[in-house]
Amino acid sequence: MIAYLQELANSLRNNKLRTFLTGFSIAWGIIILVVMLGAGKGVENGIRTMVSAVGADQVKMGVYFNQTQTAYGGYQEGRQLFITRNQLDYLREVFSDRVTLMEPEFSFFSNGSTSFASQMLQIRTIGWPEQSFGKLELRAGRLFTPQEHSEQERVVLISDGLVSKLFASGVDPIGELFTVFGATYRIVGVVKSPSPFFGTAFIPLNTFEGIRPNDFVQIKSLAVFPKAGQAKESEKLAEELARVAHQITRSDPSDTWSIYVDNSSDQAKTMDMIFLSLQVLLWVMGIGSLSIGTIGVSNIMHVTVQERMREIGIRKAIGAKPRDILRLVLGESLLLSMVAGVVGLFLGIGIVKLLDYLAVVNKWGQQEIPVGFSADDVMVLRLFENPEVNMGVAIGALIVLVVVGVVAGYGPAKKAIKIPAVVAMRDMK
Length: 429
Fold this sequence. Notes:
The protein has helices at 2-14, 16-53, 85-94, 146-150, 160-166, 205-211, 234-249, 264-307, 309-317, 322-361, 391-416, 421-427, and strands at 61-65, 99-104, 107-113, 118-126, 138-141, 155-159, 177-180, 183-191, 200-204, 221-226, 259-263, 366-370, 378-382. It has 429 residues and is of the alpha+beta class.
């Protein structure tokens, strides 16, 4: 066996160019496939992490009232739809068995300030309980009480990223005063930021109504949270919400833009479809590259056997049996394919890891978000995160190339050994 392996190695060493071209074709196919699939998984992981960080993975529906696109019920097109408080109460009653919370949703960008600093931020309202905007994660202090909500107390929650921007170092924000919309509020709690892109302040819904009552005369958006058992039926629930909303606003049910229901479950499905399409595309490109590699291996092996016709003739003339020649050619093909394939596999993995490292070092698609009370407390979100190489797929591709290499060498070798030794040596002079 040792002598056989030495013979194979010597044969490959004596034909360096041929060996390099064949090995390169095999390694390149593996490298491209591994890099494509690994990088694609890294992008998917990064996007999913970002989506999770902004809370977009929560089961929530948004009902938005827009301008009508068609005339209906005696009304002209272009009418701005909205609902009143009484109509909102009606919707709550209709869907009380399927919805845990249905609240008006208001969000504004405004300047908020303390005695230390001022900061542009997003102002969001929050009803009772706190699930109005998903489960808020408390960092310090407390959440609103039912009494504060019902009595329109001027209290506010701020996101943790705002603490270091609105207060001097070492200042406890709890109990401090916060001014927005020309009114002053008392900070009762600090919560984890629901967004990695901007600071957020939460005001009780009833308090907000007292400050800006006109916004509640015409309610143009709702936050709806299905009960646990209804989350799987979110598509049906969304259709029902739209149907009833069209009834109370006397608008055309076929005008899907005038009342738009944004379903986070549908968004999740859409995201899954996007990532699936991306994976399919990468697979197609990777298999295409792999196919090019297999064609290259096949052609090179065919040429290799033809070039060695004189050698085969000499070996037959000195007594080599057909199986000995076949064993030699296939052995070379197998050894070269395995070595080149393994090298390509590790190079592909190395390139994927290098891309991950460069993404961190160069901050490609990276966003640092404050999450604590000091400037050093940050959360890093990356567009390219933790690329994963499916070793099963990579090894499977390697096996395919090895088999292709062996098969590619078998046909020409089988044909060559059938040629008489004299003819083989004469034809290759």
